Amino acid sequence: MESLFLQQIANGLIIGSIYCLMAVGLTMIFGVMKISNFAHGDFLMLGSYFAIYTTLCLTGWVGWISAMFIAAVGVGIIGFLAERWLFRPMMLRNADIDVLMLSIGLSIFIANAAHVLFGSSPKMLTDPFRSQNIDLFFFSTSLIRIFSFFLSVLAIIVLQVFLTRTKTGTAIRATSQNRNASMLMGIDTGLIFGLTFVIGSAFAGLSGVLYGTIVTITPTMGGLPTLKAFAITIMGGMGSIKGAIYGGLILGIAEALGGNYISMDYKNAIGFIIIIVILLFMPEGLFGRKGR
Amino acid sequence: MKSRWLKWGKIILLFGVLFALPSAITDRYFQHIMVLSCIYVILASSWNLLAGYSGLLNLGHAAFFGIGAYSSALLAIHTGLSPWLGLLVGAVISALFGVGLGVPALRLRGPYLAIVTIGFSEIIRLVSMNWVDLTRGSLGLSEIPPLTPIKLAQNFQLGFVTERNAYYVILICTILTLFVIRKLVKSEFGLTLESMREEEDGAESIGINTSQYKLVIFMISAFIAGFAGGLYAHYVRLLSPETLSLHETFTVLTMVAVGGIGTFVGPIIGAVFLTVLSEALRFFEEAINLDIRMVIYGALLMVTILFMRKGIVGVYYSLFGSHAEERER
Amino acid sequence: MHTAKEVIMNGKTISCCLLFLACVGLVSFSNNVNAANTIDIGFTGPFTGPVAFNGGEMRKGAMLAVDEINAKGGLFGMKVNVVFGDDESQPQKGVAAVKKLISRDKVIVVGGGYHSSVAIATSEVCEREKTPNVIAVAVSPTIMAKGYSYIFRTAPDAFQMTDGLFAWLAVRKPKTVAFLMENSDYGRDSEKIWLAEAKKLGASDLAHLYFQIGDADFTTQISKLKSLKPEVTFSIGSTTEEALITKQSKELNYVTQWVGAGGHMTEEFFKMVGLDSLYIIAGSNEPTLAMKDPVTAAFVKAYTAKYDGARAGVFSSQGYDNMVVILDAIKRAGKPSGDLQKDRDAIRGALTKTSLNASQGLIQFDKTGQITKARSMAVQVQKVQGKAQLVVIYPTELANGVYQPPVPWSER
User: Fold this and answer.
1) Would the CA dihedral through B323, B325, C2, C7 be positive or negative?
2) Do C262 and C309 belong together in one domain?
């Protein structure tokens, strides 16, 4: 039984799950460090390229699992360096504009360095299922997308467990809620900052691997995911992981349905329109916290 | 008295040099770069009004530029409106959009404001790409009429198609714009903006209606940017949605940051420096066969924010003494 | 109060002097006339950006022609030098590049030109600057319709490209068609032509869908097409987008007779999609499929020899022909006198009288500067010896295979 509507909903949920994965890292970093990282999408792009080069050396499932691992770790390391050298000095300055401009500079730098290193020819990431299609009851999609969906869900669940059940995770949440109080309680905020940034970047890298199976991989592919990740985190409230999840799924479905029933051309604008409308009425987002 | 004469003397000398440049630099390609520099000076200064003086990080500035450009161009093409008037009409339309963006921006800070302004810019860009009947989309709008020639004598008219003549006109516009901005910044209005930037809540507590000021400065900034857009449209005579891209906004942002954000001469220095650097790097790129221009931009921006907060202007003042700075600001 | 000494030693004054010196340096640099003993030809194209690969192919073809003639001693004893201008797939960058070629590099003719949108803009500049412009790839009829005297095109326009394709379409006679097109000159112009032809054959058009250059997710569009079930889906886009469309069609189990333009079926395309591309039909002028023509065969041989076995595709042959025609015109125009405008006009005149056999066939220009005839075939991707290959299916005198209707994904 085929239904275009259900098909679009399914499309939306699946791509939405990847959006969630992208956005979760970004919102975590903002929640804890109050840093908006404009280069987040470019970290995603690096994750995709890590995956390409890994799967070139190792094939099949071995290559695929390694690719995800290497992408997450590799981009995590890059995040660590970025936090240490670039963003940490900014934390002392307390100027929003500066951080944003710095991350914009980082984004420009990474995207164009990738252009020089990897060339501008688009590349494709072959998934281990070889684009095999699967026909489920109400819709059809590819095996890799089903895989991506479940992997994203799993990753986010693991993150939530880490944040709520472990000591370090609780420390992260505490710093996010109240930095000064956390310091008074003896939490090493420097360490927490580094860790948060690494985790957030690792998630970006991982989402790059999954996103890379849907699109072609180019050095400038990070621009759009950055904007969508920001749109999602703002929708959900910056710093709220729950919000990022809802936001990601809402955006995915809205794009699929809007693109199908309203207009294909403005599909990418849907996210922006939604956040502008939301922010008009709720300046802190759907699940945001009041004040800074 | 003597210092007054000195000041005017320096200014007249500067103007003299600027106007004489095309006679010295006759290569049309370099003249083209000079014209572009002027346009970017106007655009960068207008962005600086928002981000530098008022603390409002507007990442959708390219939209104002593009709206002014497309409005003026389309009016000239479809209604035959004189481009001279079109410049102003385009600027006004852009100013209206400026107010339109200012309204949602009133309650937003930091990244929220940044994303909304990006959203605004991207929506406008998508409209210009998809409303093909109006803007010809990514096909581009070509055959835009140049600024209509001025009849000076019986058989002699001054056209503005050549780079040289366009330079004179645009230079004059640039100087006028900078004059207006300077007056604005030095006035009480300007001081209020700076106080809002530093401590918004404090400003509100002494009775300043920050919302009003924000709307006004968005309007003015958009007007000037739209004006620059019109100049660009009638000079290059070709527009495409790329003019409205984030890339353009980031270029302007880098110019102002590197020049010196929040200062008067910062955007000027940044615009000229980066436009010239961009072209110089082109030769370098051909030599080493690598596309490193934008990589250098990104690195330059990061280095500036980290180490040279006030840009080139800041470096200059720290080297040559601060009493000059107080006089300048 | 300022004494003269204080004024001079002031930091401001020093910086102003430095700035002045820098300007003087800039001025002398800019006015330095490059007395060259070379023949300078401009060549534009997208050498960076999403279609850099295709731009590179065009460039390689052109350089083959240049190297061939320089090996024989150049023209009039002078070496032929090509100055490349990167348009980065954007009309404004293309205009800047062309302006630089014309006024700074002082080239006598501008070749190249891949994107229709860019070529429309750059041809304006060339016409205004009275510099001959020979377009290599861009197909939009709009370019030549303006009747500019300095603009020529060695490539077929959108109409000429479809002749072979329409032969196939007339036989197949689909009842329902749909369109999934790139939102550009290239896409929309082709759409109009194909729609007219389909309607002539009595087909009804079920959908007109578009995408932007650079889009990556087509699931929405493909899902919609799947629900409409057109017999034939026309699609025009660049290599990347078409590869993704092919891949996502497989993922969504969408089967239709895809019809496109051969432009996107490059080596890169097949690397990306492999056997998933079976059954796609396109209009094409692939040189490797026309080896019966001796000039074409010679070109393919020389190209593969020079570039280490790289496949000579459409863009390579178009770049080659473009340069060959330009060099031939320069030769017939006579030795450059040094007066730039005079030389450019002489070349323009020589171009109008062009008549030579190139790798795409005979090249002659009509009144508007467009080539009079173009060799165009309908090709289909078929499985030959386990690999995806282009097979000519129409016109019958050039065909080396027959049309195969597409089978469901499960059977492939």
Assistant:
1) positive
2) no
Do C261 and C311 sit in the same domain of this protein?
no
Residue B276: exposure state from Cβ atoms within 10 A (0-12, 13-18, ≥19): middle
- Which of C95, C103, C124 has the CB atom closest to B28's CB atom? C103
Write down the pLDDT at residue C8.
45
Taking CB atoms and an 8 Å limit, are A120 and C50 in contact across chains? yes
pLDDT, position B324: 52
Range(s) of the domain holding residue C301: 38-156+292-364
pLDDT of residue A243: 87
Distance from chain centroid for Cα B48: 8
C chain contacts of residue B137, beta-carbon cutoff 8 Å: 183-184
**CATH code, A2-281:** 1.10.3470
The number of beta carbons lying within 10 Å of the beta carbon of residue C117 is 26
pLDDT of residue B144: 81
Omega of the bond leading into C395 within 30 degrees of 0 (cis): yes
CB distance from A100 to chain B under 8 Å? yes
Domain residue limits, chain A: 2-281
Neighbouring chains of C at 3+ CB pairs within 8 Å? A, B
Of B29, B130, B321, the CB nearest to C103: B29
Residues forming beta bridges with residue C207, ordered by sequence position: C178
Q: Are residues C109 and C131 in the same domain?
A: yes
Interface of A with C (CB under 8 A): 2, 4, 7-8, 11, 15, 115, 119-122, 124, 131, 133, 135, 140-142, 144-145, 214-216, 218, 221, 255-256, 259-260, 264-265, 267
Q: Residue C219 belongs to a domain with what CATH number?
A: 3.40.50.2300
Q: Which residues of chain C have pLDDT under 50?
A: 1, 7-9, 31-35
Report whether C118 contacts C137 (CB < 8 A): no
Question: Do the chains contact at C220 and A11, CB–CB below 8 Å?
Answer: yes
pLDDT digits (tens, 9 = 90+) for C235-247: 988 888 898 899 8
| Domain-located, residue C232 | yes
Q: What's the number of domains chain C is made of?
A: 2
Residues of chain B falling short of pLDDT 50: 327-329
How confident is the model at residue C33, as a pLDDT? 45
A62-75: string of b/e by CB count within 10 Å (b at 16+)?
A: ebbebbbebbbebb
Does residue C5 fall inside a structural domain? Answer: no
